[in-house]
Amino acid sequence: MIEKMISESRMIAGSEIEGVVLKKLKENQDYRGSFTEVYNHRWNLDLNAVQWSYVKSEANVFRGLHFHKRHDEYFCLVSGHSQLGLKDMRPNSPTYLNWQLYDLHGEDLAALIFPRGLLHGWYFFTPSVHLQSVSESYVDYGKDDNWGVYWNDPDLGFPWSFTDPIISTRAGDFPDLDSFIQAIGDF
Ligand SMILES: Cc1cn([C@H]2C[C@H](O)[C@@H](COP(=O)(O)OP(=O)(O)O[C@H]3O[C@H](C)C(=O)[C@H](O)[C@H]3O)O2)c(=O)[nH]c1=O
């Protein structure tokens, strides 16, 4: 019998970042389809999820790089193919300035949970859908804790696999890494 090859969701480059968890999700398949738990408080994830969002992205879209001082996040690619980058910007973290790159596939469901204080951004190779959750509602953080860095500043160190993504107007105006570090000060 030829096994269907699936592309694995995994970290493909970078080094450790304290507090980041990639949790593979169990897809319970049967003759009707499948059932997958995407979040459960019994998993003891470091995330007090107060808002969930359903996000659709066209191919070649990049969302980010974003940064928040006050809230933790959850990302789960439900369908499609995504490349996700994280960078530790917490001056007191033992993994300060470390970065990670993940290759995520909707056919290998996984939840990435990451703490406040990390630059984060996600690129979509194909039309994709993801779930995201935050520990502070957008209506609260959107006004004063929604920072960003321009996605391809070489000082970030990300070996992105794309060159000319579709980004928001706001993301197009994000500062470089040095200006961002000056702007956020100590936290
Ligand atoms: C984030 C958010 C956005 N929106 C509205 C606001 C805009 O009309 C539209 C797109 O928002 P935005 O361009 O901010 O979406 P992304 O570029 O994916 O960024 C968002 O998701 C990444 C991960 C971030 O970390 C950002 O903080 C967050 O803004 O959805 C809402 O209505 N609720 C929300 O929670």
From TrEMBL:
Gene3D superfamilies: Jelly Rolls. It is an enzyme of class 5 (isomerase). It catalyses: dTDP-4-dehydro-6-deoxy-alpha-D-glucose = dTDP-4-dehydro-beta-L-rhamnose. Its EC number is 5.1.3.13. It comes from the Bacteria. InterPro entries: RmlC-like, RmlC-like_jellyroll, RmlC_Cupin_sf. Catalyzes the epimerization of the C3' and C5'positions of dTDP-6-deoxy-D-xylo-4-hexulose, forming dTDP-6-deoxy-L-lyxo-4-hexulose. This is dTDP-4-dehydrorhamnose 3,5-epimerase. It comes from Algoriphagus taiwanensis. The lineage of its organism: Bacteria, Pseudomonadati, Bacteroidota, Cytophagia, Cytophagales. The gene is rfbC_1.
